[in-house]
Amino acid sequence: MEDPTFPHLGESLQPPPPACPQRCSCPRADTVDCAGLDLWVFPSNITKAARHLSLQNNQLQELPYNELSRLSGLQTLDLHGNFISSEGLPDEAFESLTQLQHLYVAHNKLSVAPQFLPHSLRVVDMAANEVAEIFPLTFRDKPALTSVYLHNNVLSNSGLPSGAFRGSEAITTLSLSSNQLSDLPPGLPASLERLFLQNNLISKVSQGALCCQTRLRELHLQYNKLTDGGLDATTFSELRSLEYLDLSHNELATVPAGLPPTLAVLHLGRNRIGRVEAARLRGARGLRYLLLQHNALGPSGLPAGALRPLRRLHTLHLYGNGLERVPPALPRRLRALAMPHNRVSALGARELAAAPRLRELNLAHNLLASARVHRRAFRPLRALRCLDLGGNRLTRLPAGLPGGLRALRLQRNQLRGLEPEQLAGLGQLRELSLAHNRLRVGDIGPGTWHELQALQVLDLSYNDLSFVPPDLPEALEELHLQGNRIGHVGPEAFLSTPRLRALFLRANRLHMTSISAEAFLGLAHLRVVDAADNLEQVLVPLPPTASRWPRTRDS
Q: Are the C-beta atoms of 462 and 482 separated by less than 8 Å?
């Protein structure tokens, strides 16, 4: 009989699997995972075969050189979320790690970056430390390095030496956001594609600082202290690949000059821009998104022709300015115009005709009154799908609304009545908000809802309704009636809405016997009824599978 403890002839002896450090996991022979174990001491007996070592989210304060030097084959070292100081991470710690490609030391206590890092590195993450100084050799001569993350540190320009990235010509992503830089660092890699410098103290971009970054696609300079004097006509002109430029939350008074034609997104929100000149936008002929919200644009802030160079413009954000009219000569391809919180008080017959492809129009929280909205104001917008006129002074629904509308928002106006002809032709409407108006059931004309055969969401909250409006659309799934004066729900209240899923009756005048037991019998899809904050606890009889959220005043 063969001895089972010995292999058959011809079989080779297999070495035993390497031991795994206590409490850690080793899903593969080359991977050691010791993350989140509250470790205070570097684990012992890590196999020399390890290529990937995770020690993130522990309590480590230092790395022992003798333990780390054994792991010469490491390719990934994750130390994220510990308490390692620069004293606990000596330069010689990385001498033997000649194959290391990914080093993650974010969220530690480093005050200076390690001076000597392996030439094999591809990704280095030192974000969220206390780094105030980068040594000249830290990132220099790393030919494989592609990504460097140094955001959320305390780096100033004096702590980042000139030529810090010399010889590292593969870096595509560099994050220096949330530091203390006052100017762009000199000698940035020409290979950069994404540069993050937001939330610094940058007040100027020195001439030529970006002259070599011809591959740069994203530049983030928001939340700085940039003024018009800190930029010149050549600052961005050499960025022949730039697609995204964020200059929001600065102190600019004009649109920067020299914008490249490749630019697709220009974010200028939260500045001090008082006027937009066509000459400043002429170079950015490929612009698709222009964001100018919360600036100082007054009645003459967007003169006729200012946007004419932007023939490909898709989205224009102007909310939070002082504009008194829709900008004249809108780009013909414009799809979205957002102008809430301005001072627009009138809409003429042809003001929107220049942008027939508009799909989204937001004029909420302006000064629009029904008498000053022309009956043909919206007629040219046959592609319009979403119209927000909330927070104005409208006393009736606008005439001539496009038949393709999917969402119509008229909340917080002064509407006192609804008639069938006002909603005629809106057979594709799915969402209608009439909240916070002055509607009473008696002022809603018979047949008003018949046109809205696709309506799924109807918000009639905070009006003066005394009972559930009759003959609601059959497709309705969500009905908001909270904050009215409803004191009774009869057995026929929801006969026309068999698909109803959610009903909100909160804060009305209902009491214990206000709701007929038969009111919900045909509502097989009903899952939510909110009847809290009424005069008394209201028990809502629902099908056995339905959720009651909440169904009583005190629930």
A: yes
Question: What's the start-to-end Cα distance of the chain, in Å?
Answer: 76
Residue with tokens 């390095």: 145
Q: What is the pLDDT of residues 16-55, one digit of tens each?
A: 667 899 999 999 999 999 999 999 999 988 999 999 999 9
pLDDT at 544: 60
476: three-class secondary structure by DSSP: coil
The separation between CA 94 and the C-alpha centre of its own chain, rounded to angstroms, equals 38
Helix H, strand E, coil C: the string for 15-63 is: CCCCCCCCCCEEEECCEEECCCCCCCCCCCCCCCCCCEEECCCCCCCCC
What pLDDT score was predicted for residue 551? 46
**CB atoms inside a 10 Å sphere around CB 21:** 20
| Interatomic CA distance for residues 437 and 285, integer angstroms | 43
Residue 204 · residue 229 · CB < 8 Å: yes
Domain count, the chain: 1
Asked whether the predicted pLDDT for residue 299 surpasses 90, the reply is yes
> Collapsing DSSP states into helix, strand and coil, what is residue 92?
helix
Establish if 555 belongs to a structural domain: yes
Q: Is residue 438 part of a domain?
A: yes
pLDDT band at residue 521, thresholds of 50, 70 and 90?
confident
Residue 71 lies in a domain: no
| CA distances for 29 relative to 19, 54, 363, angstroms | 9, 14, 61
Q: Which domain holds residue 501?
A: 415-555
Does residue 83 belong to any structural domain of this protein? no
The mean of the pLDDT values for the chain is 93
Residue 529: how many other CB atoms lie within 10 Å:
25
Residue among 13, 97, 94 nearest 50 (CA): 97
Token pair belonging to 183: 């100017």
Q: What is the mean pLDDT of residues 303-329?
A: 95
Task: Assign residue 539 the CATH number of its domain.
Answer: 3.80.10.10
Contacts for 400-406: CB closer than 8 Å, 24+ residues apart: 400/375, 400/376, 401/425, 401/426, 402/378, 403/427, 403/428, 404/428, 405/429, 406/430, 406/431
The beta-carbon contacts of 217-220 under 8 Å, at least 24 apart in sequence, are: 217/193, 217/241, 217/242, 217/243, 217/244, 218/193, 218/194, 218/242, 218/243, 218/244, 219/195, 219/244, 219/245, 219/246, 220/177, 220/195, 220/196, 220/246
Q: How far is CA 139 from the centre of its chain?
A: 32
